[in-house]
Design a protein that fits this description.
heterodimer; A: 239 residues; mainly alpha; MetI-like fold; 8 helices; flat; B: 265 residues; alpha/beta; Rossmann fold; 2 domains; 6-stranded mixed sheet; 4-stranded antiparallel sheet; 12 strands; cell membrane (chain A); transmembrane helix (chain A); MetI-like (chain A); membrane (chain A); Amino acid ABC transporter membrane protein 1, PAAT family (TC 3.A.1.3.-) (chain A)
Chain lengths: 239, 265
Amino acid sequence: MTTVFDFSLLAYSPPGWGKVLLVGFLRSIELAAGGYLLGILIGIAGASGKLYGNKVVRDLLEIYTMVIRAVPELVLMLLFYYVGTDLLSRASSAMGFGGVNIDGLTAGILVIGLVQGGYATEVFRGAILAIPRGQIEAAHAFGMPPGKVLRRVTLPAMTPHALPGMANLWMIATKDTALLAVIDFSELTLVTRQAAGATQYYIMFFLAAGVLYLALTLVSNFALRRFERHARRGLVPAR
Amino acid sequence: MGAPRDERTNGKRTCNRDTRPAQAIRLPRGSERYSLTANQGDIVAIIGGSGSGKSTLLRCINLLERPTSGEVAIQGETYRLRSARHGDLEIADRRQVQRIRAHLGMVFQNFNLWPHRTVLENVIEVPIHVLGMKRDEAIHRAEGLLDRVGLGSKKDMYPSFMSGGQQQRTAIARVLAVDPLAILFDEPTSALDPELVGEVLAVIRDLAAEHRTMLLVTHEMAFARDVASHVVFLREGIIEEQGPPEQIFGDPRSPHLKQFISSVA
């Protein structure tokens, strides 16, 4: 092999691998976005439970966040995917339904969401604790029902405090998608390996994948910064 | 008592939050040392030294603090409370509390505006999302109220960018927007720079002139004497003396009250 680059192989249609890479990239984004959103929902519920729940709820959530944060994500992925699908199939056939097959995307989103949720719970818990108590007290003093207090006051007031941590989690989510390659999910890293293996242009394809990940990060950074500016609109700048 | 009863607290309160001194408004009920009534149109000033239980008493009226015993009634409706473990009282009917709270306005020492909402949004929040008012109507009313407290031109600002006096006037407009049965003021001028106290007191005086029912915890003695129809002096969580302002300030009986008045005069 004499050349490292043959850009014609990046063309959109075969024999170029461009389309394969882009589809993998899109699936990575789907995974990351789905897992991240699920993580946010788990995080809000988890933080509320840890702060306002009874002892049983708090202890269960403590175990959840501890396990999620203690076990390597790769192990969690394998565990959730293989054990999870196995349990689900058994449960389903025990209830008289046929065996179920979770598709890779759903499984991936669930796994990433569960992992993200563990971290997000702690990020949101800290952010809620950072809200001056009086703001929430004022809402209660006006007779606002608890669900509305959460939606109208607590969540928007905690957002500026949560954003730096949640931006980190998004970046981690985009890269965690690569771990899904171990369960044969065709996200960007897996298809890149296939393309590279088939053509032997390893450097070029992995650089191309790197560029795509970088582009995602840059675009995310821009969007997150705009959102942070919006979330901090009512706060006096720290400097 | 001819006028309808508006608020009444009657009971013992021992505050079990760790950092605060123990406070109690003790039974037996009926005794004027342990019971407080505000009739419609009354302006009750609650005075006393630091840690005497003024804020605790005020916060028992909308149950931001729960009394340890006794009862609180708003317009004849008594909060349903039940005893919890450790003998404290807890809220038995959360909806009732929410319903009553929606008609009691509270103005806090630290304003407690919602920083992610503009001045106007702060004022329309409760009418729309608690009282179910139409947005247009809420905005229309809010603009009138903001004009009244002198903030009509600031309605699109975020509170953190305004002075303390402006924030507190916003908080008063937010309370007026629910057209409350009574307004609870918890040291409304204590967090303000001295030159900003006057503008807030002027707004409260304006409300007093239209005979709104108000309960006011304050350190502004001259203002209390001037505006209040009834003054309550608390000491160590007990109502040491209460009566019309002329009597409390002009002819105090309790030695503690005498000492307090001479120390703040």
